[in-house]
Amino acid sequence: MNNSRITFIGAGNMASAIIGGLLKQGVAAERICATDPSEEKRQQLKEALGIQVEADNQLAVKAADAVVLCVKPQILQQVCEGLSAALAHKPLIISIAAGIEMSAIETWLGGELPLVRCMPNTPAQVLKGASGLIANALVAEQQKELAAKLFSAVGVTEWLDDEALIHGVTALSGSGPAYIFLVIEAMEQAAIKQGIDATTARKFAAQTVLGAAEMVLASDLAPSQLKRNVMSPGGTTERAIQVLESQGLLDIFDQAIDAAAKRSVELSLELSETLKG
Questions:
Q1: The two domains 6-168 and 175-246 share their CATH topology (first three levels equal)
Q2: Helices in the chain by DSSP H: which ranges?
Q3: Please, is 149 exposed, middle or buried when counting C-beta atoms within 10 Å of its C-beta (0-12, 13-18, 19+)?
Q4: In the predicted model, is pLDDT for residue 21 greater than 80?
Q5: How are strands ordered across the β-sheet holding 129-135?
Q6: SS3 of 175, please?
Q7: For residues 267 and 252, what is the distance between their CA atoms, to the nearest angstrom?
Q8: pLDDT band (50, 70, 90) for residue 96
Q9: What is the distance, to the nearest Å, from the Cα of residue 102 to the centroid of all Cα atoms in its chain?
Q10: Which CATH superfamily is domain 6-168 in?
Q11: pLDDT beyond 90 at 277
Q12: How many other C-beta atoms are found inside a 10 Å radius of the C-beta of residue 193?
């Protein structure tokens, strides 16, 4: 990856997070370029990160080995059609636009280009993201490795074998941070009722979630077993878990993630109809 030239079309929070992660991994700043219509934004990026910046998307992609599309879904068609004439060298294209299927992007770019679609999530901004990726048939193994390394710079990555699974990934990890924020909020409020001051309650709730997550990632044990390891018979944890399970917490999460996945499908269809119109 250190020898690849990477261009980001759009320089919002997600693009900035990925760029920051790449720089921390030792990728040379001069091998990274970002475009943005705002001169002020471009100057800020250049000063803060030392990367190349460009106002013209076509100029920015001409020498790129990988082009990361980081624009809003509503303007992706316009951006892709504007880029198509500058992609004769067939760089790897990576889209993080929610709801836009690869078939549409391929059409807008003129076809016959290696394309990866990615669903990252907001913890990428603190290098703790989770990204699901799907590649079309034109993506070479070396390009898959490049895409994986790009998003590994800001967290963990997994390849999907069916584009339809993007909706499940959206419901799990895309929307998932909000579920955990709600859990932290609930723990914080409950702790305050126990007399713990608000600052300590928030810090301990957040740190407990962080520590538990790290234990899951570091262990070969299933979360169900890790849960049991904390529970002493007749103890405090067992009593609390009994309350949570009796109130249907597992079923609530099942319903929530199912609702989010179905809404992801609906939004994709709605966006498709809007773009066609």
A1: no
A2: 13-24, 39-49, 57-61, 73-83, 102-109, 141-152, 166-169, 176-193, 198-218, 223-230, 236-246, 249-276
A3: middle
A4: yes
A5: 52-54, 32-35, 6-9, 66-69, 92-95, 115-119, 129-135, 155-159
A6: coil
A7: 22
A8: very high
A9: 17
A10: NAD(P)-binding Rossmann-like Domain (3.40.50.720)
A11: no
A12: 8
d(CA 159, CA 168): 13
CATH class of segment(s) 175-246: mainly alpha
pTM value > 0.85: yes
CA distance 121 to 17: 11
Coil vs helix vs strand at 8:
strand
b/e code 227-264 from CB counts within 10 Å (16+ = b): eeeeeeeeeeeeeebeeeeeeeeeeeeeebbeebbeeb
Give me the amino acid identity at 206: A
Domain ranges of the chain: 6-168, 175-246
What is the average pLDDT across 85-101? 95
Average pLDDT rounded to a whole number, residues 51-67: 96
